[in-house]
Write a structure and sequence with these properties.
Blueprint: H1 2-5, H2 10-27, H3 30-61, H4 70-88, H5 95-115, H6 121-142, H7 152-166, H8 173-188
Helix pairs in contact: 2-3, 2-4, 2-7, 3-4, 3-6, 3-8, 4-5, 4-6, 5-6
């Protein structure tokens, strides 16, 4: 399950996101690329604020959600955006396959976070919700843009290169977030 979970690590998703933004910038438009950056930024910022606030204040609020799944939120937004771009630039007959494969990938990453004990089902659900909202923000604006000339083969090559270079690399993001949350709690005494 860790191997599947690694597909949602920021060490892989950040470079993949940067590549996707550059592909959209070059093959479609600067505004479409900025729309994606905004949606991904929203996803990361909301996830971070939820994690910091809930980690710092969880004993006070007595909630079962302590740390929403960043792997799930970011995977939903990034892989969902790749799928949306691919669907827009390929034959309609491939649409069900792209949607099914992307949905299975995201669901497997989400399930892996529960299976390895990193998150509860509720934390994964919150992460999924944040990712879906970020993806919807991207989709609403992106689908208003002209289609451009993005090749799906380029998207696949980008994903393959990111996997080859960064798969298995881990960023200790959760540790950094927890340390910051505990520091914030001590400094601000907000909870």
């Amino acid at each position: 399950m860790q191997a599947i979970s690694d597909l949602g690590d920021s060490a892989l998703l950040v470079p993949l996101s940067i590549g996707l933004v550059l592909v959209i910038w070059h093959g479609q438009s600067r505004s479409a690329a900025l729309t994606l950056l905004t949606a991904l930024g929203f996803c990361v910022i909301v996830t971070l604020f939820l994690k910091i606030g809930l980690i710092a204040c969880s004993p006070v609020w007595r909630m079962s959600i302590v740390s929403p799944s960043g792997h799930t939120s970011f995977s939903t937004a990034v892989y969902g955006a790749i799928a949306l771009v691919a669907v827009r630039h390929t034959a309609r007959s491939r649409l069900p396959m792209i949607i099914a494969l992307t949905s299975i990938l995201i669901a497997c990453i989400a399930a892996s976070r529960i299976a390895i004990g990193a998150h509860s089902a509720a934390e994964v659900a919150v992460g999924m919700l944040v990712g879906i909202i970020a993806l919807a923000l991207f989709a609403v604006q992106y689908l208003r843009e002209r289609a451009g000339t993005i090749k799906v083969s380029l998207l696949l090559a980008l994903a393959g290169l990111a996997l080859l270079l960064f798969y298995g690399t881990h960023l200790p993001a959760e540790q950094w977030i927890r340390e910051f949350a505990y520091l914030s709690k001590r400094v601000s005494n907000a909870c």
